[in-house]
Amino acid sequence: MEWPLAPSLHARLTEYAEVVDDGDMEKLPGSMVITGIRRFYDGEFMDHVGPSLIQIAKPGIGVDNIDMEAATSRGILVCNTPDAPSESTAEHAVALLMAVAKRVMVGDKQVRGAADIGRDEMRGTELLGSTLGIVGYGRIGRRVAEMCALGVRMKVTIYDPLLPGDAQLPPGVDRIHDLDQIFAQNQFVTLHTPLLPETRHLANEKRMRMMQPGSYLINASRGGVVDEAALIRVLEEGHLAGAGLDVFDPEPPLPNNPLLKMRNVVLTPHIASNTDAGVAAMQAGTVENMVKVLKGERPTWIANPEAWPGRMKQANS
Fold first, then answer.
1. Residue 40 predicted with pLDDT over 80
2. What is the set of active-site residues?
3. Can you give the pLDDT at residue 2?
4. Is residue 1 over pLDDT 60?
5. Residue 9: what pLDDT?
6. C-alpha–C-alpha distance, residues 13 and 57, integer Å
7. Are 236 and 260 contacting, i.e. CB atoms less than 8 angstroms apart?
8. pLDDT value for 245
9. 99-113 residue pLDDT tens
10. Would you state the pLDDT for residue 24?
11. Cα(143)–Cα(51) distance, rounded to whole angstroms?
12. CB under 8 Å to 58, separation ≥6 — which residues?
């Protein structure tokens, strides 16, 4: 896995399978379950592992680095842990929002010797009573709404076309059914959607220009949800006051990416879920998904349920 596996979880896996975790890719063929390989899982890669592969176990929520159609057509289960990183990611999104609004990074640079940073550049934005639009009201979006509406007392508006009409919202949270209006009506917009064909560049140039001058964009979902070239333009022109980004497109950002030089942008290297509790929960959930498959049981979370039982049926027959 991406992080060293806790000894108790490693022992749990070895009850049911030989565990190969030395990074030797030549040992992949013949594997039944794989996890933690930082690459795009396409059909060619799946075929390289071979017909014994029955599960790709993904820590965290996103499965956009996996060719889901290729996995499903081969009967390979793609399992994730959508509950595990939610709290840590929501907290990180709020931290980015506060850091960029309060000019934390420019203040830090000034204290460390950047004499060209004046007090005007360090003047922040008060959040009490300001407006926040949340795109995506799943596990993470809900927690961001609670923290900002109930804790900071921002005026929160959410957009999620998949949310049931009778969903109960916390005090201070309202719903809108027009995505464009989320951008047009709020000083802050934060994105919490998966990367799908219909959400790629959801935050496009048209919508970012709908935002009020001096607004902020926060993204801790996936880089491709934002048209990054358009974001750079509206920031360079001064239309947006700033942005807080944990994800990029491509990722990591290229060395010549203008965002890296902007002092009104707070950047982190896709670490929103990388907390002690977040990592522990993702590891435990991933191992549990793997153990269930190795025992011939249905995993708790399957991102492509249409693949069930797929190759598992062959493996257990």
1. yes
2. 222, 251, 270
3. 58
4. no
5. 93
6. 13
7. no
8. 98
9. 999 999 999 999 999
10. 85
11. 41
12. 35, 66, 78, 79, 80, 81, 286, 303
- Phi, psi for residue 135 in degrees, rounded to 5: -100, 110
* pLDDT tens-place string over residues 63-121: 999 999 999 999 999 999 999 999 999 999 999 999 999 999 999 999 999 999 999 99
7-83+275-316 matches 86-267 in fold: yes
Task: Tell me which CATH code domain 7-83+275-316 carries.
Answer: 3.40.50.720
Task: Name the pTM for this structure.
Answer: 0.91
Burial (CB count <10 Å: 0-12, 13-18, 19+), residue 122: middle
What pLDDT is stored for residue 3 in this prediction?
A: 63
Confidence of residue 6 (pLDDT cuts 50, 70, 90): confident
* Whether domain 86-267 has CATH 3.90.420.10: no
3-state secondary structure string across the chain: CCCCCCHHHHHHHHCCCCCCCCCCHHHCCCCCEEECCCCCECHHHHHHHCCCCCEEECCCCCCCCECHHHHHHCCCEEECCCCCCHHHHHHHHHHHHHHHHCCHHHHHHHHCCCCCCCCCCCCCCCCCCCEEEEECCCHHHHHHHHHHHHHCCCEEEEECCCCCCCCCCCCCEEECCCHHHHHHHCCEEEECCCCCCCCCCCECHHHHHHCCCCEEEEECCCHHHECHHHHHHHHHCCCEEEEEECCCCCCCCCCCCHHHHCCCEEECCCCCCCCHHHHHHHHHHHHHHHHHHHCCCCCCCCCCHHHCCCHHHHHHC
Domain residue limits, the chain: 7-83+275-316, 86-267
